[in-house]
């Protein structure tokens, strides 16, 4: 046989082997370039589902509480008191993204085992963005009645009763601050910060272009309360995500979870965002990117009252962080009379 014929013959024989190996080669390459590649099906289903809340239905809309944790849910007993005013779960649903490599427990089954399929997360990395999107997607698919999506950590606590929180979000009275937030998301969006430009350059010079020019780059708290419309926008996005999923190349820590959500929603629907969060955080004396950590000695009725106070846009704080696990006992001592007292007293 002539050399050209031999080459053609061996190429023909190698085709089955090539087809056998190619799926593995392609999938490996695709996954390495996209940390949430195997989540794409979940995200697609969450944004294309045809389940809708019927306007003619007497069913009430719900709040989806999304817990992002990598350790035990230390404040589960306090949240149990918070949720117990609605034992039939007419007002809320719970979803937990727990680090699959750690033994995260649900003491007493407070959260009803609502653990979603999760992946390991790392601080100052895009994995925290992926985890939040995973929570949103599961909550969108699970119940069309979920109309608000509140992201929490294991260090968060409620500052009011469940019914007060629910009424603040859904029962708009003409003269209340909540009425001005109708159909709006509570997410912090900051356009001026001392190190904003350094954060923008964390992935390299001009890397964010053209999708995210510097004048559109924003920063804010990673803890938000989104409307269903905005939750779908976040889950659906691929354009900005391909930039924010890139690793940081700077020596200083980068916090992409504090950049991605405020930047995306500021760019696509700023007018329907309040620009502020409902979760109070104390950055006094912060270190290494961590806010002030409250200790048992600091817990008091006065502290709860101070944490509730409205922000500069006159929205109340409904939740707060960051509390050490040892705070559970003093918090439970004042839970019934102060924290989850089911009344309409806004401030102490």
UniProtKB/TrEMBL annotation:
It comes from the Eukaryota. Its main location: membrane. It is a single-pass type II membrane protein. The keyword ATP-binding does not apply. One of its GO terms (cellular component) is membrane. It is found in: Membrane. The keyword Cytoplasm does not apply. Coiled coil: none annotated. GO terms for molecular function: glycosyltransferase activity. Keywords: Glycoprotein, Glycosyltransferase, Membrane, Signal, Transferase. Residues 1-28 form the signal peptide. InterPro entries: BC10-like, Glyco_trans_14. PANTHER family: CORE-2/I-BRANCHING BETA-1,6-N-ACETYLGLUCOSAMINYLTRANSFERASE FAMILY PROTEIN-RELATED (PTHR31042), CORE-2_I-BRANCHING BETA-1,6-N-ACETYLGLUCOSAMINYLTRANSFERASE FAMILY PROTEIN (PTHR31042:SF108). This is Uncharacterized protein. The lineage of its organism: Eukaryota, Viridiplantae, Streptophyta, Embryophyta, Tracheophyta.
């Amino acid at each position: 046989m002539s050399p050209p014929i031999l080459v053609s013959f061996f190429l023909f024989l190698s085709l089955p082997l090539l087809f056998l190996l190619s799926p593995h080669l392609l999938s490996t390459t695709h996954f390495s370039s996209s940390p949430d590649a195997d989540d794409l099906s979940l995200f697609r289903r969450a944004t294309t589902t045809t389940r809708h809340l019927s306007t003619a239905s007497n069913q009430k809309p719900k709040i989806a509480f999304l817990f992002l944790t990598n350790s035990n849910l230390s404040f589960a007993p306090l949240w149990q008191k918070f949720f117990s005013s609605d034992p039939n779960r007419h007002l809320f649903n719970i979803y937990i993204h727990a680090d699959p490599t750690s033994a995260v427990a649900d003491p007493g089954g407070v959260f009803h085992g609502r653990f979603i399929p999760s992946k390991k997360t790392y601080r100052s990395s895009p994995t925290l963005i992926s985890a939040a999107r995973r929570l949103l997607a599961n909550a969108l698919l699970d119940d069309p009645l979920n109309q608000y999506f509140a992201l929490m950590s294991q260090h968060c606590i409620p500052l009011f009763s469940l019914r007060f929180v629910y009424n603040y979000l859904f029962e708009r009275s003409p003269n209340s601050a909540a009425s001005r937030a109708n159909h709006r998301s509570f997410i912090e969006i900051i356009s001026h910060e001392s190190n904003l430009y350094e954060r923008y350059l964390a992935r390299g010079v001009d890397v964010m272009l053209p999708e995210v020019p510097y004048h559109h780059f924003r920063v804010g708290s990673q803890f938000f309360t989104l409307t269903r419309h905005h939750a779908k926008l976040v889950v659906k996005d691929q354009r900005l995500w391909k930039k924010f999923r890139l690793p940081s190349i700077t020596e200083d820590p980068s916090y992409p979870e504090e950049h991605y959500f405020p930047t995306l929603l500021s760019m696509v629907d700023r007018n329907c965002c309040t620009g502020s969060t409902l979760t109070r955080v104390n950055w006094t004396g912060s270190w290494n990117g961590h806010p002030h950590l409250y200790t048992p000695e600091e817990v008091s009725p006065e502290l709860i009252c101070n944490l509730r106070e409205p922000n500069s846009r006159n929205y109340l704080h409904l939740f707060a962080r960051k509390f050490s696990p040892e705070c559970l006992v003093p918090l439970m001592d004042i839970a019934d009379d102060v924290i989850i007292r089911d009344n309409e007293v806004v401030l102490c």
